[in-house]
Structures are given as structure tokens and as C-alpha cells.
Amino acid sequence: MPSPYRGRFAPTPSGPLHFGSLVAALGSFLDAKAHCGEWLVRIEDVDKTRSQSGAAEVILKQLQDHGLVWDGPVVQQSDRDSIYQHKLEQLAHYLYSCDCSRKAIRARADCYDGYCRTRQPRSSPHAIRFKNDQPVLTFSDRWHGTVTASTICAREDFIVRRRDQLYAYQLAVVVDDIAQGITDIVRGSDLLQPSFWQLSLWQCLAKRQPRMMHLPLVVDPVGRKLSKQNHAPAIDSRCAMDNLRAAAKYLQLDLPDAQDVADLLSIAVEKWRKKWQITTD
Ligand code: GLU
User: Fold this and answer.
1) pLDDT, tens digit, for every residue of 175-203?
2) Could you tell me the pTM of the whole model?
3) What are the CA-CA distances from residue 203 to residues 7, 78, 153, 187, 265 (Å)?
4) Could you give the domains of the chain?
């Protein structure tokens, strides 16, 4: 019987992988392999304004150089606009248009207050929001335990199609995770808060919920998340073993010396299995 586990790594191709994204890639890879499951890679280029040409190819090469080899074809969100459109049509009675500016929203409240629910937008272009009538306010996370929404924004009617007509990340990520049969989402803790919105959408679009694990976030010396905006350097594939060992340390695994990357990863999978008491039969 194949393992029912299916995980994924879903980088945004806004630049090459940096150390923070390697930690997320490694954590999701180890969890999938420790469950004898599949590990998919999806290029999240739904936000065309953030995507950098050539970055997806660089990321895939960096993953391979680090022995993080995925199962099945790589899915690219930019090929899936018609699928997102179709889902919006399915969700039609949960949706409404909104032409509020960020400034107008902030002037009224900390989060969006549902102002356009009962009003026809007067100007175009406008965004499309999801009526979040049954918000998810708590969920069980395998790393953090029970997580409760820390702001009322978890109740917000969030955007599923942006004012610039791009499909929103919140919609695309849920549609794709469901379509790809993802059972386990393992990613950085910067995505803990959006998980409440995403789980609300899951409730509408699927009969099941994914398991979640949000990994410790890598921060720079002044406490900011490592990111391309903060000029985090690209990982250097010539130091793949050292990079993997350092990333594993972030995930609370101490790895010994190994012959090569494949050997190091198989030790890491075994250690992850022990750490999380994963049994596969
Ligand atoms: N594409 C997102 C990012 O690079 C990750 C989305 C996810 O793992 O759900 O931050």
C-alpha cells in the first residue's frame, strides 16, 4: 500500500533560494520521506509582479544540488489561471466585489470590516473578497501545538482576486493543494496567520483538512525574516553539505559527517522519523 502522505515545497520564484527557504524545503522533504510519502514541488508564480525570469530554473537546480529531488512533474501556477477562474465561479455565492483602498480600510478599522458586502462597488477596477462567514480561529499544528488566531484579521473577508486582476495567493495555494492531493503542509512560521484564512477556504472547497506544521523561521541578526527583500544571499550549491547541516540544526537535528548529500539526507530522514515518532507500517 503506498503511503497516503503527500507533501510539497512551494517556492515563489522571486529570486534564488536563500537559507530560510532551504530550511522550509528540507523540513517538508524530511517529513515526506520519513512518512514514505511523496514530495512535490510547485512554483508559486501566481503573483507575476514578484516573479523573476529564470528564478524557477535556478531554484530547481539548487534543490537538486542539495539532493532534494521531487516526485512527479513540477506544477507552475502561471499555467493555472483558468482553473482559478473556474474555482471562483464555483465559489460565486461566497464572493463579492470591493473597491476600497487600503487607506480607506485602515481609516475604518485594523482589518477589513465587510464594508462592500452590501454595496455595489462604484469604481473599477475592484478586488474580489471571500465572505468568511465561518472563520477558522484555531487549529492544531504539529510544531506549535494548538494555535489560536492572534488578531481579528482571521475573521476578515480576505481577497481572492486582486484589484490588478491577479488571482490571490490565498486562493491559488488552497486550490492547488487540494488539486494535488496534498495531505501535509510543512512550511515556515511566517505563514501561520494566513493558515486561518486558507483553512476557511479548505472548508468550502474540500471535505478534508490538511495537517499543518509550521517550522521555525530563520531571522537575521536584527530579527527580520530572511527574505529576498532583505537581501538574503543565495545559498551556494558548492557548500551543499554544510548548508544542509546548518538547515537541519534549525530543525533541531544534529547531523554527523557523511560521505555525500544522499547519505546525509538519509541520516536526516531517520533522525526526523525518531524525533517525531513517525511509524510507517
Ligand atoms: N510561496 C510561498 C512562499 O514562497 C509559500 C507558500 C506555502 O508554502 O504555502 O513564501
Assistant:
1) 999 999 999 999 999 999 999 999 999 99
2) 0.95
3) 19, 25, 18, 20, 35
4) 1-79+219-281 (3.40.50.620), 93-216 (3.40.50.620)
